[in-house]
Write a sequence for this structure.
């Protein structure tokens, strides 16, 4: 049996309400660094593989794990956050400042819409998350810690609920409602069991409280 631990990155500067410039280089807040250290300190099952996204905040969250499990391989997979707004248009803004364009994006609910350079469509986001999960479930390692993002974890959970559903406007609209109703805290862990026959089972999430 294989265990995939999907771990949302610790609190970032953006999560703390600070303005940011590029989605990929957002650092952890001081509180986020404490969360990452606490999560690693409490971790008891040594992973055979650690996976990070290309976004800095996942590598920073994984850093205490790298120090604790120095011999563990670390690889990068495309499990980075869903960036649906063109980054250049919103450099130097906060999450609060982006609320209206975010609302308009989800109101449109077009799975093939792309806001411009550096953004992606909802369909592409779903395809890369599905492909990453498929790769992880077929890897030989039995214990894999995946440091990723809130939208990624929610996309995985939504896919588990709708394993064969095509990515349509209805699927996207349902995902958005699911996204709004589900809080995935920073540094929360969602363990997914992959059984010998390929079936999956989600265990209760674990949260670090500081």
């Amino acid at each position: 049996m294989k265990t995939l631990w999907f771990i949302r990155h610790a609190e970032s500067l953006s999560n703390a309400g600070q303005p940011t410039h590029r989605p990929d280089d957002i650092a952890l807040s001081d509180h986020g660094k404490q969360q990452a250290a606490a999560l690693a300190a409490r971790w008891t099952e040594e992973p055979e593989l650690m996976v990070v996204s290309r976004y800095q905040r996942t590598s920073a969250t994984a850093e205490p794990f790298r120090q604790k499990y120095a011999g563990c391989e670390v690889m990068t997979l495309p499990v980075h956050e869903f960036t649906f707004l063109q980054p250049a248009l919103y450099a130097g803004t906060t999450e609060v400042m982006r609320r209206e364009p975010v609302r308009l994006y989800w109101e449109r609910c077009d799975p093939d819409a792309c806001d411009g350079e550096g953004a992606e469509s909802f369909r592409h986001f779903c395809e890369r998350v599905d492909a990453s999960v498929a790769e992880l479930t077929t890897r030989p390692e039995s214990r894999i810690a995946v440091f990723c993002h809130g939208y990624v974890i929610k996309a995985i959970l939504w896919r588990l609920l709708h394993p064969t559903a095509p990515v349509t406007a209805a699927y996207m609209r349902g995902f958005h409602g699911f996204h709004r109703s589900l809080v995935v805290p920073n540094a929360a862990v969602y363990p997914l069991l992959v059984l010998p026959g390929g079936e999956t089972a989600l265990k209760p999430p674990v949260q670090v409280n500081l």
The chain has six helices and six strands. Residues 122-138 form the longest helix (17 residues).
